[in-house]
Design brief:
heterodimer, A: 331 residues, mainly alpha, 14 helices, globular, B: alpha+beta, 3-stranded antiparallel sheet
């Protein structure tokens, strides 16, 4: 109860604080530089120069403290060891030789190859199919729904799919093993299966991200001009040909956007691995490895930070590409 | 004709493929939902897909003691019921462990000692003795019975009240609501300035926001935790509200600015000519017109904060009053990984709210996604 009051009062203070800041800072500016009197012209110009900064200041301040400062701070932390002494690139040379780091990097690259490709592919198929049927809207909702589910919730959901019972532990209650058995195969402990277990974890993220890809690609498909499609049909193209040769080439830009957005999500993947295997059985990824070094056992902020810098470097190309596109767009 | 036939066959194929795809995508969630209503034993002995059909089981039960037989004319009789109150249907029974399914319901089995046993399909049994029997150990009855699908709310009751999920629900709400509202407000003002006010370096600021969109959150953890502890904020709700606000701002500013740029400039210009201040323009014109964009960001932020595990693990403590639902489920996965009924019910509680928000406000969510990805990049 106390907590509820605390939360409600914070909302009120936070919201009113924000509104009050914006309102009173504007009022004060108007008082200090009144738009009348002998210096009216000069005052208006000055007020107009200052006012935008009043509007952006809170956002700018929070962004600087919560995102910009940490980027630099993390970089400098990565040059120190666990007791805070400066060791130059020591953490990076340690990374290069570390078995677990190499495993994480390889796994992350695997995730990068598979998840964006599979999600975009399934998203495209789902968009292509649902655009042509009457109950397309409902179908899209259902495929899109996993987006709303937390990675942790998804991990529990998929435990019911991947569960494995040993020889004397009775009936298989995992769906995948039940299906394998139905077709006469042997049940497997999917989550501990070396190498392939990575793909079973990836399937969870693909399941979540496909809806995202589908929604965006479906909108892009709807935006294609009818004329090109009709012309193709008149020339005798089959529906499949139209889809692959007419529609897809026209939405390459959107496909690229979907692909890169999912790529960024993949680089930060943490919860799924944390909840399903915690990096055991050869499934470690960078984000979870970093969490290990930062918060478990004997924390080493230097090594943890070095891993973050690596993730940051991997994201940078996408960042540059995004900025370039946004810039092009605004012209 | 041929052409039309080919077309309808294609329509069929498309409908069928779409149905298969949708089924594949919802089956995992349906599995969780069904499991969360099954009792502990049912979950751990059979797959959730068997829950909707009746299941068969073999049980051994002892009839009432022979000493309790009642005289009926010449004979002594014991009557009772196996698996009382479980709504079962007996499909076979037996009286020896060698042949536990020797008789069909309604048949009469004769014991080596001479008494006669009948079990009806509803579970009622009748044992007839020619002479007055004695003893305390009742006749063993081997019964094969079909049990109807059984569902229970006990898992939810246990999870909410005994496992602390109810408390975590409150904690999650405490994190989520302020962490959704505050960034919307802060971002709306900034987005307006970046869209419609003359200022030097505007393009640079916009580019910086786009760049910050993809910065991995992990970057922020150590520096911010040090900062929070350094200024005495420590681990707690205020810290996590600020953190979520910071992490949500790039997307918020980006989405809202993109939307506001598209608003008709004439309205804003004519308001300016009429002498409206920027604050008035913002409050009376921009905010109401931007409602769809505000709503879509708010939904994003809500889903993201509600579902977040990592930020909560870093910025909140581990006390009972600060563990959020995702954190609680991860703990349960570790400590009670075999208690499927607890896991299933907990997970479903945590995903029920986002799914409800998703289905009721999907329109705005889709619009926001499109604005964020297709237009901007």
């Amino acid at each position: 109860m106390q907590q509820a009051i605390f939360a409600v009062s914070t909302i009120i203070i936070g919201v009113f604080g924000c509104v009050a800041y914006f309102y009173f800072s504007n009022v004060i500016l108007d008082r200090l530089l009144p738009a009348k009197g002998p210096n009216a012209g000069r005052n208006i110009n000055r007020a107009n120069a200052i006012r935008p900064w009043l509007f952006v200041f809170p956002a700018l301040a929070i962004l600087s403290i919560y995102l910009l400062y940490p980027v630099f701070s993390t970089f400098f932390l990565s040059l120190r060891n666990s007791s805070g002494e400066f060791i130059g690139v020591g953490n990076y040379t340690w990374l290069a030789g570390d078995e677990k780091f190499r495993e994480s990097l390889v796994n992350n690259l695997l995730w990068l190859l598979v998840v964006p490709a599979a999600s975009t592919f399934f998203g495209l198929v789902a968009a292509g199919l649902t655009d042509r049927i009457k109950w397309g809207q409902a179908a899209q909702s259902l495929v899109f729904m996993p987006m709303a589910i937390s990675f942790v919730g998804a991990a529990v959901i998929w435990k019911f799919i991947y569960d494995y019972r040993g020889d004397n532990q009775g009936e298989q209650i995992g769906l995948l093993n039940a299906i394998v058995q139905m077709f006469g195969g042997d049940p497997q402990a999917w989550i501990t299966l070396p190498f392939w277990n990575n793909f079973f974890l990836m399937a969870i993220l693909v399941w979540i991200q496909t809806g995202f890809a589908m929604v965006i690609l479906s909108a892009a498909l709807k935006g294609i001009s009818e004329e090109t499609i009709e012309a193709a049909y008149l020339d005798g193209a089959s529906p499949l040909q139209v889809f692959f040769k007419i529609k897809i080439p026209q939405i390459w830009g959107t496909i690229a956007v979907v692909w890169t957005t999912i790529t960024v999500t993949v680089l930060k993947v943490f919860d799924i691995v944390f909840a399903m295997t915690n990096g055991q059985w050869g499934t470690q990824v960078l984000a979870n490895l970093m969490y290990d070094w930062m918060f478990r056992g004997s924390p080493d902020f230097g090594r943890g930070s070095a891993i973050v810098v690596v993730i940051m470097l991997l994201v940078t190309p996408v960042m540059v590409w995004n900025i370039y596109n946004a810039h092009k767009e605004s012209r | 004709m041929d052409m039309a036939g080919g077309k309808s066959r294609l329509t069929w194929a498309v409908n069928l493929s779409a149905a298969v795809l949708v089924l594949l995508w919802i089956i995992p969630t349906v599995g969780l939902l069904i499991s969360s209503f099954r009792d502990r034993d049912a979950i751990s002995t059979s797959g959730w897909w068997t829950a909707l059909s009746a299941s068969e089981k073999n049980v051994i039960e002892r009839a009432l003691a022979p000493g309790e037989a009642i005289q009926e004319g010449d004979i002594w009789v014991i009557e009772g019921r196996v698996l009382e109150g479980q709504g079962i249907t007996v499909t076979a029974f037996g009286i020896t462990s060698k042949e536990p399914e020797a008789f069909a319901p309604g048949d009469t089995a004769t014991h080596a000692r001479g008494h006669k046993i009948t079990v009806q399909s509803d579970g009622n049994y009748r044992i007839e003795y020619a002479e007055e029997p004695s003893g305390k150990r009742g006749q063993r009855l081997f019964v094969r019975a079909e049990t109807p699908p059984g569902f229970t709310l006990d898992n939810y009751r246990e999870v909410l009240f005994a496992e602390g999920m109810g408390r975590s629900l409150l904690n999650t709400l405490t994190v989520t609501i302020p962490a959704t509202i505050i960034p919307v407000l802060v971002a709306a003002f900034a987005a307006y300035a970046l869209a419609w006010m003359e200022m030097p370096g505007r393009a640079l600021l916009v580019a910086a926001v786009v760049g910050l969109l993809v910065v991995p959150l992990q970057v922020a953890f150590i520096p911010l935790l040090k900062l929070h502890i350094g200024i005495g904020l420590g681990k707690g709700y205020l810290g996590i509200w600020l953190a979520h606000t910071g992490f949500g701002l790039p997307l918020a500013v980006f989405l809202l600015r993109n939307y506001m740029v598209g608003l008709p400039g004439e309205i804003i210009e004519s308001a300016r000519v009429d002498g409206a201040t920027d604050f008035q323009i913002f409050r009376r014109i921009i905010l109401p017109l931007s409602f769809p964009a505000l709503a879509s960001f708010a939904i994003f932020q809500f889903l993201w904060v509600w579902n977040d595990l990592l930020v909560a693990k870093v910025f909140l403590g581990t006390g009972e009053d600060q563990v959020v639902m995702t954190g609680r489920i991860v703990d349960l996965l570790g400590s009670r990984g075999g208690d499927w009924e607890i896991l299933a019910a907990s997970a479903f509680i945590s995903i029920a709210v986002p799914i409800f928000v998703f289905f009721s406000l999907q329109r705005y969510l889709v619009r926001g996604l499109l604005a964020g990805s297709v237009k901007g990049g």
